[in-house]
Amino acid sequence: MNYMELVDTMTPAIYRSFKLAVEIGKWPDGRRLTAEQRSEAMQAVIAWGKLHLPEEEQIGYIDKGHKAGDSCDEPSETTLKWQEDSRE
């Protein structure tokens, strides 16, 4: 069994357990994760998410949103008109 097959067999409960362990740095029983364990668990969480979650729920997803208008679609030069102060 290769790594991706192993990740694919993870249950959602294992995914949630690994994700929480990475977030707080501890296993469910309270033991601290080593740096290697944290790295491996994080890789498994990311890989499992890629296989089983929609893009917007995956680790690292950035919602780029939508523009409010079309003013940024085509950048154009805008000429500034300076007015002299008439109060003098």
SSE topology:
Elements: H1 3-8, H2 12-24, H3 35-52
Helix pairs in contact: 2-3
Which structural traits does this protein have?
single chain; about 0% strand; mainly alpha; about 90 residues
What order do the helices and strands follow?
A: HHH
Count of alpha/pi helices: 3
- What is the average of the pLDDT values? 86
Q: Percentage of helical residues?
A: 40-55%
Strand content: under 5%
Oligomer: single chain
Tertiary shape = elongated
Biggest sheet architecture:
none
How many distinct beta strands?
A: 0
Helix/strand/pairing category: mainly alpha
Description:
The protein is mainly α. The protein has helices spanning 3-8, 12-24, 35-52. It is built from three helices and no strands. The model has no long low-confidence stretch (mean pLDDT 86). The protein has a domain at 3-57. Helix content is 42%, strand content 0%.
What is shown here, in short?
With 88 residues, this protein is mainly alpha-helical. The protein has helices at 3-8, 12-24, 35-52.
